[in-house]
Amino acid sequence: MVVRRDGYVRAALELLDEVGLDGLSLRKLGEKLGVRGPALYTHFKSKQALLDQMAETMLDDQLAPLDDPTAMADWAEWLARRARTIRRTLLSYRDGARLHAGTRPTERAAMTPLIKPLLAAGFDEEDATYAILAISRYTLGCAIDEQQHVESDRAEDPAASFEYGLARLIAGLRADVDVANPPDLNVANLLD
């Protein structure tokens, strides 16, 4: 049976739903696909390399429609939609949030496309990078917490709690960029 790299990753995501992150192994993936270890190691140097690719694939399909932030008029709405999409996607897989933890793009090259809409809105590069990381880590933390607790154990609605925090984070970012970039006031118009 010939299976391509993407097929291995998709099968691994199916296996994640079946056995969870703790039960996922290259051996079990090989059994599921009917291949031996060397076939898997041709594509993935280690289990961590497979997990990294799974986390990327999990989000890529869902985030592709948001890849063009210029299609949205407002950077804050783009950022909120991105966070909601990530949360929804992580929750759609058993242990999806735990899988994704530690595999997010933190290298500057990976961050560049993500910070462009914030740079255009007036953020400097450092603030834009930290804004993306803060929203991403908040979203991931909420998803991890939600997947770790049984629904009946919750006093609050996790979705409402997430939205509340997301709105506050974005409001803070908006306030910071507005202070850093006040509107250009034409004094002549003020005198009229």
TrEMBL record:
Gene Ontology annotations of biological process type: negative regulation of DNA-templated transcription; response to antibiotic
DNA-binding region as annotated in the record: 25-44
Alphabetically ordered keywords of this record: DNA-binding, Repressor, Transcription, Transcription regulation
SUPFAM superfamilies membership: Homeodomain-like (SSF46689), Tetracyclin repressor-like, C-terminal domain (SSF48498)
HTH tetR-type domain sequence ranges: 2-62
Pfam families: TetR_C_1, TetR_N
Transmembrane segments: none
Gene Ontology MF terms: DNA-binding transcription factor activity; transcription cis-regulatory region binding
Protein name in the entry: TetR family transcriptional regulator
Organism of provenance: Amycolatopsis azurea DSM 43854
